[in-house]
Specification:
By secondary structure, this protein is mainly α. 63% of the residues lie in helices and 4% in strands. The protein is built from eight helices and two strands; from the N terminus they run H-H-E-E-H-H-H-H-H-H. The protein has a two-stranded antiparallel ribbon with strand order 1-2. The longest helix is centred in the first third of the chain and has 23 residues. It is elongated and about 85 Å long. It starts with a helix and ends with a helix. 19% of the residues are buried.
């Protein structure tokens, strides 16, 4: 009888310690919370500011890249600003941030554009180039590419 009481006591203690540990554990930070970048003058940025810095470079890379820049040749400054803002909001939302993307879905945006696999690859390369330029950590870079990768089906060949 005493042995059962001791076992029960030990089990209750282990359970209480386990519950206390669970109650004090912090949830894993979102990609948005972990996302850091260094801006053009060396200032560390995080969250929406970091995303904005990377997206500005990404759009500049796209405009300068002969593999894809024909699609951007006639873009006016206001339209470029809107593109940059929409992309930043979309990435912010996709990373678990507080932003909301109100633009068209990717399929509707790209229907009729007939974007090719080489253009998709150039786009990904341009994003990686921007991430590297702004010293985004490998884990966050990989997680961001993983979050955006599923959009390919709604972009390529539409």
């Amino acid at each position: 009888m005493r042995r059962n009481s001791v076992r029960r006591g030990v089990l209750m203690l282990v359970g209480a310690v386990g519950l206390a540990a669970c109650a004090t554990m912090q949830p894993e930070p979102t990609l948005y919370e972990r996302f850091r970048a260094i801006d053009g003058v060396g200032t560390p940025r995080q969250g929406r500011d970091a995303i904005g810095v990377v997206v500005e470079s990404f759009v500049a890379n796209m405009v300068a890249d002969s593999r894809v820049n024909a699609r951007f040749k006639d873009i006016q400054p206001a339209a470029r600003g809107k593109l940059t803002s929409n992309l930043s909001d979309q990435i912010c939302e996709a990373t678990g941030g507080p932003c909301s993307y109100y633009g068209k879905d990717m399929k509707a945006t790209h229907t009729g554009m007939k974007i090719t696999e080489p253009e998709w690859n150039a786009t990904v390369e341009n994003l990686v180039k921007a991430l590297d330029k702004h010293k985004v950590a490998e884990r966050e870079k990989k997680d961001l590419l993983g979050a955006l990768g599923p959009m390919k089906a709604d972009i390529v060949g539409q």
